[in-house]
Amino acid sequence: MALSTQRASTSLPSTESPPRWKHDVFLSFWGADTCKDFVSHLYHKLQYWQTIKTFKDDQELEVGASISPELLNAIEASHLAIVVLSPNYASSAWCLDELAKIFESMETRDNTILPIFFQVDPCDVWYQTGSFAQAFVKHEETFRDDGEKLKRWRAALRKVANLSGWDSKDYECERELINVIVKCVWSKVHPTITLSDSKDKLVGINSRLVELDFLLALEANDVRFIGIWGMGGMGKTTLAKVVFERISHHFEVSKFLVNVREVSAKHGTLVHLQKQLLSPILKENIAQVWDEQEGILFIRKCLSNKKVLLIVDNIDHYNQLEILVGNKSWFGEGSRVIITTRDERLLIKHDIETFKVEGLNASTALELFSDNAFRKDEPHEGFLELSKRFVDYAKGLPLALKILGRSLYKRGRDEWISALDNLNNSPDTKIFSSLKISYDGLSDMSQNIFLDVAFFYKGKEKNKLIEILDRTYDFSSLSGINVLIEKSLLIIERGNKVEMHDLIQKMAWEIVRRESRDEPGFRSRLYHRNDIFHIFLRNTGTEAIKGIRLYLPELEEADLSWNLESFSKMLKLTVLEFHNLMIPSAPKFLPNSLRILNWSSYPSKFLPASYRPNLLVELHMRNSKLVQLWDGKLDLPNMKSMVLSFSKNLTKIPDVSGIPNLEVLELPNCTELVEIHPSFAVLKKLTRLQLTGCKSIKSFPSELEMDSLRLLGLGGCSKLRSIPEFGIHMKNLTSLDLSGTLIEKIPSSMEHLVGLENLVMNRCSKLEELPEFIGKMEFLKQLSISETAIREPPPFLFHMGNLELLHFDGKSTMTGKLDFGFWGLFGSKSPQPLGFVLPTLRDLRSVVSLNLVDHNLCEGAIPDDIGYCMTSLRFVDLSGNNFVTLPSSIKFLSMLETFNVERCPRLKQLPDLPSNHMLDVIADDCASLKLLSEPLILLSSPSTKSAEFTFSSVNCYGLVDEEGRNNEILSMIRRLAAEGIPPIYQRFNIVSPGSQIPWWFSNQSEGDSLIVQLPPDSCSRWMGIAFCVVTTADLGNPVAIGCEFLGMKCFWNGNCCNFSGFKVSGHFVRAHLWIFYMTREDIRHTFSYYNYNKIWLTNTTNVVFSFRGSYRGFGKEKILNVKKCGARLVCEQDLEELLLTTVKSLKRTRDYSDYEDGPSGSGSSNKESLFKKFKGRLFS
Predict the structure, then answer these.
(1) What is the rounded CA–CA span in Å between residue 1113 and residue 1039?
(2) What is the tally of structural domains in the chain?
(3) CA–CA distance, 958 with 514 (Å, rounded to integer)
(4) 934: annotated active-site residue
(5) Fewer C-beta neighbours within 10 Å, C or N terminus of the chain?
(6) Where in this chain does the record put each TIR domain (predicted)?
(7) Contact 128, 154 (CB under 8 A)
């Protein structure tokens, strides 16, 4: 059945009956201004965005002229108004009258007036400053006798500035701004779109339509082919239908060819579809189309001079494109051809621009599911969690969400639970049948690859997967994998990993289950615990089984009656994987057909005597009881990886010269391994040799010449006294671990390792010196040399400019000699040196972590130029030292994320800190600390919306006055708030001494809870809530409870909505303030999670917030007492009053009366400019 129109418009009926507006949008603008072109482009875009009827008045009235009745009627008859506030907008009395009328007509409707601040500052509109002030100077003269009119105009401007809209400065180009506006208007004009042939509400479709609009570009006069592709059930056809209904009236000929795949299969030819396409034109002559070639001739002849909209739905073969759409010359100017398919390759081959349909996000998926299960936008009370489980099962697939939702409509809770249990055992039949269409169209080999990935290799790196499959099927599998990707059955994720949608995987499992519904032994692949236990308990294995993969979440012991003789019947088994399974008996037989043998805790000392692993690609037997693998030499040309880690009984490795393609040999913690066969040194393709923790190895080959080796791990080989000479061709070795060995010197041949990036020699207690050539290794990034016999660091360490991590911890016992530890740059504790000053740091620009913990660093020990030199630093730990101040250049560490100065008893003031988007400051137990950073506007230029700020000053009682007021923290709060933190920062936590809640938290309560009145979500002027809690430890003996972790939970009406915590090392005894912030988005997310958002959307809501603190010390967790709590609803208007006190704070004045008195002082030009800056941000 085809949908067809010819010069006919289509409408989009709605399930509801909204008011019938004559115009969707009324455009208010000043035509003589610079925004004229912008308005023209916006109008054009809105008109092409079908059914957005836009009124644009192009008249130009003289000053003093009144608005015509027609214009007033147009305002009344419009659903929305878009007000383009340009620099000279206020110079037009007509525009100001029009704006006042818009508010008079529309103010009572929600979200109907949309301002665009086009090249103007929103603050200028609010305050009528700048060009708006100039305009009103003239108006004051012209309308001096009509004060009410002027008052009405000013009020209208303040109202429009107070609305949420768009600031043109926030967009790189006008096109981007226009597209955002059109998307918003579309969603308001058509909040629900319905198909003309369906009662289904289309959820989540608008964003897809916006993206398709870019590709369609209806205003362009060229011919365009667009391909919509994605896995089955994603809504490709639905999307195509909506596009067809929306734009078909723009075309002379419009045709929707439904489900080409099915029609083609039914008729065996495409003539039937060609006739559908041509029937409106040929009419009674349609009989002349009697074969496909004739149809092609008629299509080219009849449509090449017509503007055509053609939708070809669900193609699955290339010839369907050739016969139905050919090429662009078949259609007239302005034509659009849209194809839907599951196979991207068909589109690429035909050179068609593609649009991939992705799954729905969680919130949209829940709405679609609810619409089908409850006939409303959200679940019924008591069904939210169950609904989320079904939504999680569907993984964003619209088809599954609809089918599952409909099947549960008006069913009880018990039936829902039963249905969920059934889904875990067997997929829904309708979902399965729809998804299986893609599988049925595959070749036999592609089907096998698909099933192998679904059962054994999901998540495998693509190149590794290809290697395994190539050796499994003895042919190149690359093309087969690419076919599966193009047909949306496989996905390539980050790290080149091969993944698939969960429902596609479940479909694969069901395909194999149906091979033998009752007896697992006749299925080709097994993964389910019960099925695998069945075949070994009942000995029902057969040749049909190609693979077994058993991953148990916890260690489980198999029944004594397990019969491993079942392996003798599985002569075609290629994959065998057992994890977390303890089997009491040893196998006497393993199939020679195995390619993958991955058996952790293998129960026998030897492999079966009859087993010939010639086809094996991977041999992984972690924690096995193996003593040895085999005697002598075996030819294993396919073997790529051998992993026997933690096989503590393994004593030797056999001759491996017959494994020329081995790439990975991992034997860590094989503690009884005395030697490895010297033949490994001839393995030219070996990239990883890992022997870490093999403490019985005494000797190693005297020379290595392994071109491909990238990692050599000998760490923990505690009896190894020498390492080999390295050949001149070992340029690919990047990581070398020699830690814990007994080596006394480094061989000069290490100089050949020119590609070395990571060198570890910790705990080499006999090593006394480092050769100078190490300082010349230009690619070395990490050098770790702790706990060796080296007395002091060689000078070249401070000139290794490429180092990112340098760990040096000497063991000098010489009085007065330097003895540091480095982690990052320096490391762990050392004895107390005398007057130690760090040497130059100018060459260490790549170091990311500086750790100088407990080095007794005194005043001046840190070089003044640290902030200029170590520009890559992200982590700085200076805790446990004795300086009083720190270099001011620290503020230039633009990548700093963590700054720790805890336990610095003489530190009096924090240094200036950088304006980074994420920063943790730890200053616990600094007894002398009295001043925070100047000015400590820490986050004034955030670069991302994921910015975080935490500040901990536990037990810094110098910040508190005699009455328990923490004035430094109060100043910090003001400055952070004034800098616009609330609308931007997602994590904001402060903990500091204090027993009095600052006055700024206007809503205060004794005890652990308080009520906050939240404005409705529709109110755009508030940004979040700041909380302050006074908490103490309830200690019987308040002297020494060591606290490892402090935590604070915030509850909303009994539901946990926020958690924050700090790691601390001191004693938490006296009262502390805990200050944190919840953004408006946090609250919206919480309300949505607990199904409360619809109530809150339009109503003021009283919410009870309660708080529970805890501390964990010495492994025990206890509750903190919450004495008082306070809250502040942070709104935009707060900024003005905050700035009155912030300007004073920036000058380092401290007004201790701030706790009793509110903000005071008069404004200034400086304050006004700052306020404009901050207010401008809020409109972004």
Answers:
(1) 13
(2) 5
(3) 74
(4) no
(5) N
(6) 21-189
(7) yes
Q: What is the CA radius of gyration of the chain?
A: 37
Catalytic hit among 70, 98, 493, 897: 98
- Residues 1107 and 1037 reside in one and the same domain: yes
Alpha helices in 487-630 (DSSP H): 502-513, 529-537
Tokens 């992984």 belong to: 620
Residue 706 domain-assigned? no
Residue 360 and residue 204 in contact, taking contact as beta carbons nearer than 8 Å: yes
Examine the domain organization and report whether 215 and 137 are in the same domain: no
> pLDDT of 408-449, one tens digit each?
888 888 888 888 888 877 888 888 888 888 899 899 999 999
Look up tokens 């100018």; give the residue.
842
- DSSP one-letter code for 282: H
Task: Say if residue 461 is in the same domain as residue 388.
Answer: no
- Domain range for 62 is 23-189
Return the minimum-mean-pLDDT range out of 39-43, 356-360, 837-841, 1118-1122.
837-841
Q: Tokens 């067997």 belong to which residue?
A: 426
Does one domain contain both 265 and 128?
no
From the list 61, 121, 55, 113, the residue with the least C-alpha distance to 82 is 113
Q: Within 10 Å of residue 176's Cβ, how many Cβ atoms?
A: 12
Among 1005, 1051, 1061, 1052, residue whose Cα is nearest residue 1029: 1005
Q: Would you say residue 103 lies in a domain? A: yes
Instruction: Give the 3-state DSSP-derived string for 173-226, with helices as H, strands as E and coil as C.
Output: CHHHHHHHHHHHHHHHHCCCEECCCCCCEECCCHHHHHHHHHHHCCCCCCCEEE
Q: Do the Cβ atoms of 1074 and 1047 come closer than 8 Å? A: no
| More confident of the two residues 1114 and 382 | 382
Based on the domain organization, do 345 and 383 belong to the same domain? no
In one-letter notation, the amino acid at residue 981 is: I
Token couple for 302: 């009849």
| Inside any domain, residue 826 | no
- Classify each residue of 88-106 as buried b or exposed e, where b means 16 or more C-beta atoms within 10 Å of its C-beta: bbbbbbbbbbbbbbbbebb
Tell me the per-residue pLDDT of 109-155, one tens digit each, with 9 for 90 and over: 665 889 999 989 888 888 888 889 899 988 988 888 888 889 999 99
CA distance 1066 to 957: 13
Using the 3D structure, point to which of 466, 498, 514 is the last residue of a domain: 514
Q: What is the Cα–Cα distance from 965 to 959, expressed in whole angstroms?
A: 8
Torsion of Cα atoms, 172 then 178 then 179 then 181, to 10°: 120
Question: Is 461 in a helix, a strand, or coil?
Answer: strand
Structure tokens at 394: 């569907």
Please name which of 1053, 1051, 1049 lies closest in space to residue 1096, comparing C-alpha atoms: 1053
Structure confidence at residue 759 (pLDDT): 93
Reported residue count of the chain is 1180
Classify the C-alpha dihedral 344-347-351-354 as positive or negative.
negative
Cβ(647)–Cβ(622) below 8 Å = yes
Angle at 610 between CA 606 and CA 616, to 5 degrees: 80
pLDDT of residue 1146: 34
| Amino acid symbol at 935 | P
Q: Are 822 and 853 in contact (CB under 8 A)?
A: no
Helix 413-425 vs helix 384-394: crossing angle, to nearest 10:
20
The whole-angstrom separation of Cα 615 and Cα 1091 is: 57
Domain end point (choices 163, 189, 215)? 189
Whether 707 contacts 683, CB under 8 Å: no
Say if residue 157 is in the same domain as residue 256: no
Angle (CA) 707-709-712 rounded to 5° is: 140
Q: Same domain for 285 and 379?
A: no
Same domain for 470 and 409, yes or no, is no
How far apart, in Å, are the Cα atoms of 1059 and each of 65, 292, 550, 678? Answer: 60, 67, 38, 56
CATH of residue 495: 1.10.10
Q: Cα–Cα distance between 3 and 241 in angstroms, integer?
A: 9
| Nearest partner of 875 among 825, 833, 841, judged by Cα | 825
Task: Say how far residue 410 (Cα) sits from the centre of its chain.
Answer: 36
Query: Quick check: is 708 in a domain?
Result: no
Please provide residue 24's backbone torsions phi and psi, each rounded to the nearest 5 degrees. Answer: -75, -40
